[in-house]
Amino acid sequence: MLFTVSTSRLLTLLYLCVSILTASGSPLPPDGVTRFGPELPPGFFRPEVRLKLGVVKPKQSPIGHAVLAIDDVMVHATWADLTDTQLIPKKVPEEDLELYRRASKWFPLGKAKFKSQADKEQALTDMLSIKLPPYGKTGGGCWDYIESALETLRKRGELLDSASVLKEFTERKGHFK
Questions:
Q1: Structure pTM?
Q2: Are the CB atoms for 91 and 135 separated by under 8 Å?
Q3: From the DSSP assignment, how many helices (H) and strands (E) are in the chain?
């Protein structure tokens, strides 16, 4: 009887340990949130990155708001404040990234390739310095900004298949705008 009780406790303890070890080694994130891409150690540079178009579609608006994801960075054109008449390019703040990931429909556009991390940062700087016309004029909307940002990458020679990327964007733009 004593052997049976001890064996039962030992097997329960062994089962519990194996369960904990299996769960901690699981490839799923512990918080249950699906990541946008693999998490990389700080300072790691990946030369080839995926480009995705995100569309946030508010219920009260027939037009979706466009966001461009360049691997783990998101850029879009938005108002600096409610009195502005012109959209300005911005990175989506770190604290809002998860909100955009969940609230957007995402469409793959293609890939871009950078020579170095500094080159990628310069491309982002170039995209964030795009000047848009006033909102409501031709070229002044968030979709126009994403198109200009992709064109900036094309001119810099960083889109891997620029014709395909631009075609995919144009098709998505026509569907949501």
A1: 0.70
A2: no
A3: 5, 5
CA dist 50 and 23 (Å) reads 30
The model's pLDDT over 84-108, given as tens digits with 9 standing for 90+, comes to 788 999 999 989 888 888 878 899 9
List the chain domain ranges: 48-176
Chain centroid offset of residue 146 CA: 13
Annotate 71-108 with DSSP letters as a single string.
TTEEEEEE-SSTT-SS-EEEEPPGGGHHHHHHHEEEEE
Cβ contacts of 164-168, under 8 Å, gap ≥ 24:
164/110, 165/51, 165/109, 165/110, 168/53, 168/107, 168/108, 168/109, 168/110
